[in-house]
Design goal:
- This protein starts with a helix and ends with a helix.
- Strand 8, helix 6 and strand 9 form a beta-alpha-beta unit.
- By secondary structure, it is mostly helical.
- The chain is elongated and about 100 Å long.
Length: 456
């Protein structure tokens, strides 16, 4: 799945590249075979496409595994130049010498002159003095004392490079000028910058954007939180709402506003203006954003946007009605009513299912709440009055039920509750009388009579 934090970083890279007249490079770091499948790569590409990063607007995807030869060659260069050495220490060895499971590597093999061999990792020899200064467009110039950076592994015992080296070599090979990534990578940056320097290449410009956290201010976790961009897409979030919200995670447009056209975001976004503090991913706020975007759609666009939930797709479950029961004209008639009441496109189904099912999906809690003492008599009167109406319009239906309720000392809100549940199966939904008009006289009366039979 594609993490929403990764989507935020991708948007920032994409906008920055466009602003600078450059190009974003998409690289799939696929060296972990257990986490590498073609369909997962395709999932990333389609998720990027959904939020507006078209496949023709970036270079790639490139694959880290394709550059294994260059990565191994870099490891050899560093070893031959005396910038790296072989080490046969196990983690247990290090812990025993340090007296703690948290002990860092102590440089034990620095001067043992070991050559390459089985179970011998290649470690980078970090400088004993001085400091590594990271020039960061968001965080200024974080400074790391070299003596506090342990000699870190750059290649495993089988010769395969680890992420730190592979990432640097790939960036050098692809002539990367700017690296925009999450704050969690900042501790790796001085190590990577030392590698750039050791390989004789000027490091890129860094920008570490704030980590994305949940309501408990914990970093968003795939194991604990809803983080998959695809899950939000299939739940019914609009792409425009999602990417607008993602760009607010650590940044804000000018003025007292948050919902702005994408053109404003593209023109105003500056990496230097990103707030380095952790960014709260507020799903309630995102939902409210989405509702605003849904209500702003032209009705015909709203109808089209709802289509996947009205028919089902590979990733969206089919609705409860049979395909032949769905009527596009009927849906178009109620679409403007539904558009003002839903915050997610998936919510369209429970709002309109009563129109396309032979009988409503009855919510028993709603039934118990609405069908109080006197409901049987009210339904009897409503059935008689509705059946005698010369015209079937929302205005006439409302006036008729108002009269039926008034005869029993009930205001309209109380009078319409049993009718709504009998016809739609729920206590809340689209405006009742407009719904009855679209549903039609015969289907309405059939449902009212069926409900009446359930009552004593």
């Amino acid at each position: 799945m594609f993490h929403v934090g990764g989507a935020r970083s991708a948007l920032q890279n994409w906008i920055f590249a466009r602003q600078q007249g450059g190009v974003m490079v998409l690289r799939i770091e696929d060296t972990d075979a257990a986490r590498n499948r073609p369909e997962w790569t395709e999932g990333i590409l389609s998720a990027l496409e959904w939020i507006g990063i078209g496949r023709d607007t970036y270079e790639g995807p490139y694959f880290q595994s394709s550059y294994a030869a260059q990565q191994r060659a870099a490891a050899v260069r560093l070893y031959e130049a005396g910038r790296a050495y072989y080490c046969d220490c196990t983690r247990e060895d290090v812990q025993l010498r340090g007296g703690s499971q948290y002990s860092g590597y102590d440089g034990f093999c620095r001067d043992r002159d070991l050559g390459p061999g089985e179970k011998r990792a290649l470690r980078f020899r970090t400088p004993d003095e001085g400091a590594t200064v990271v020039v960061d467009l968001i965080r200024g110039e974080p400074t790391f004392e070299n003596r506090l950076i342990e000699d870190f592994v750059i290649a495993r015992g089988d010769g395969s490079p680890v992420f730190l080296l592979a990432n640097v070599v790939d960036d050098i090979t692809m002539e990367i000028t700017h690296v925009i990534r999450a704050e969690e990578h900042l501790p790796n940056t001085p190590k990577q910058q030392l590698l750039w320097d050791a390989l004789g290449v000027k490091p890129p410009v860094w920008a570490h954007v704030p980590v994305v956290v949940n309501e408990k201010r914990q970093k968003l976790s795939k194991r604990r939180d809803k983080v998959a961009l695809e899950a939000y897409r299939d739940e019914g979030y609009l792409a425009d709402a999602m990417r607008n919200y993602l760009m607010l995670l650590g940044w804000a447009p000018s003025g007292d506003r948050e919902i702005v056209p994408w053109s404003v975001i593209e023109s105003e976004f500056r990496l230097e203006d990103v707030n380095p503090s952790p960014a709260f991913f507020d799903e309630k706020k995102l939902r409210a954003f989405n509702g605003e975007y849904i209500r702003a759609l032209p009705v015909q666009d709203f109808v089209a946007a709802c289509r996947p939930w009205l028919t089902g797709t590979e990733t969206i479950a089919p609705p409860p009605w049979r395909p032949e029961e769905f009527d596009a004209t009927t849906f178009a008639a109620v679409a403007p009513l539904a558009q003002t009441r839903i915050a997610l496109l998936s919510e369209i189904v429970p709002n309109v299912d009563f129109l396309f099912l032979e009988s409503p999906l009855m919510d028993e809690a709603s039934w118990a709440k609405a069908m109080k003492e006197g409901s049987a008599e009210l339904l009897d009167a409503a059935i008689e009055a509705f059946a005698a109406l010369p015209e079937w319009t929302a205005e006439v239906l409302k006036a008729t039920l108002e009269r039926v309720g008034a005869d029993r000392g009930l205001k309209l809100g109380k009078a319409q509750a049993p009718v709504r549940v009998a016809v739609t199966g729920r206590t809340v939904g689209l405006p009742l009388f407009e719904s009855l008009e679209v549903l039609g006289r015969e289907r309405t009366l059939t449902r009212l009579r069926a409900a009446r039979l359930r009552l004593p």
